[in-house]
Records
---
Amino acid sequence: MSNTTNSNPPRRAAAVASRVGQVFENPATGERAVILTDPRTDPSRRLVAHLYVRPGGRVALEHIHPTLTERFVVLRGALAVAVDGRTSTLRPGESAQVPAGARHDWWHTGDEETQALVEVDPGDRFVEMLTSLWGEVRDNGARRGVPGPLQMAVTGAAYRDVMVAATPPRWVQELLFATLAPIGRILGRRPSYPQHARSATVVEPDPAALALLTPDGRIDWTGDDQR
């Protein structure tokens, strides 16, 4: 019987570096986000970002998150948020929650830049999808804030649990996915792009924004004015 032992210890998975402080931007929609809680390193897979929206900015399209909860709390300026047809204008200290499955939209309102904290739970696949879409917008100069139909079909088919457009009807979207996504994949489109998952732009997160987080990295909702 051999008494030899393996002198090489088992390999451990490489630690994933946190992206806290990294800045991601969609130049077409006027959105800029600084990551405060990174779902890739957070045990609860939660995303918290400090969102800046320039005057005239808005999310690219009305949409639904089938499996995610999204929350907003405004720090500065004003943000109009529509959830299932009900629109509220949030001002500093006011918040809104978007339950999973709710149709929603949001846009900047007023004259000054809007700042808000955004929490997405779970946020790992959401940020994977969003950074890829924003990266493709930056690289290809998409004016509407989203990539072209082939890329959207490939990404939409892979991330239908994360986000679907409010229009056209879901069955029409599924038909488009089935038709366009195979063409997109043949032409080299991928659901997500690792090169867009990290940003070379890194800033120190705003201490005032960090002060609104609990020790485990979620937004502290005690005492806020929810709409």
Note: Residues 124-140 form the longest helix (17 residues).
---
Amino acid sequence: MSGFALLTDPDIERLFASADELLENVGLEIRDDAGALEQLDAVGARIDGTRVRFPAGLATALVRERAPARFHQHARNPQRSVEFGGEHPIFAPASGPAFMRDPDTGRRRYATLSDFERVARMTQASSVLAHAGGGYCEPSDRGPETRHLDMLQAQLLLTDKPLTGAIRDAAQVRDSLEMMAIACDDPDLAQCSLLNLFNIEPPLVMPGHVAAGIRMTAAAGQACLISSYSMLGMTSPASLPAALAQMLAEVQAGAALAQCVRPGAPVICGIYAVPFSMSAMRPIFGAIESALVMTAGAQLVQRLGVPFRADGAVTSAKTLDAQAGRDAALGLGVAALHKGALVLHAAGWLEAGLSFSCDKFAHDVAALAAMGADTGTDRPAHCSDVTSAADLLHAWCRPEMPPARAAALKAFVEDGRLRYQGAGSATP
């Protein structure tokens, strides 16, 4: 491992032993997915209702012996494909905000599909973001049952970089797999073309939709990003060693489930935490504790033998100011130092993830270019093309997609709207 080593080898062994103790004695609760319980039972886990207990060393062995240390995610444009676990960190923009900082007024408002499309264009135009990510913002002008279809279609048409799918329930995972198969003209998804993100809920809970999503993604030979994203003193212990042991246990259990479904299924694991303010009753992003957790998490995941997910330009700042710049520099610097295989939230994040800012996006992209961030592809990074959001939008060129594939995507989305309307719920 390169970079600063916070943990010694004995520290790492003690944390793995503590994680084993948690998985053996406390276990992990898997809710509403009998299939996951059956598959873990078949490899030797002890099942007690919804509680799964792993004999010491089982989860670690399943991941170390089966999961690849490196793998490629193939983009629909082969020149944009990336390798996780190699020499180059792969950077992706922020995901998850419900709000957008209006590009004209700077005020916070609900996001729209037009905002989502704007970010997709900027991501495509940026030379330092090798991964398109996903879920940049929640388009409030589209219905919650079908907006994931609009978002995926926009990404697939406006960028040809690798991306992440929709994962809020099993139906969204299925739609993501089918839309990616259409866009890549690969009906059987013979190559790893999709990365789906799944968070284990601390402390030690795997919701049914997460378990089902992991199983569906792994069964299709696609990649799972399995993370534990905790709040110190709220959803995990305030003590860093105890929190690290809990998060290590959680990601090992999730990655082990993927290997039960399909040995060799590609996985990325992430360990990240933010301190929780008991006075303000909110998480604090950009704190030094998070940098320490990410440093230690990189060592633990790399010892596990799989690629590491890092977090980049995260901040609690409400606008693009000195705090936002300082927090971004800390997060991106630590992520790059430890060669996070995938650095999420590398551009655009504001307000503890509540809002997306195009100005912050351009600032973060410029910072990455100035750092000399390697793109992980054969396309070099340039500082001159990232001076503002407007410059990025001006530089965007629509990537080519054969008309037949574009038409098939449109037909799938239109059919999906009818399916969801007929079902009357988010799950057909």
Note: Confidence is low (pLDDT under 50) at residues 377-385.
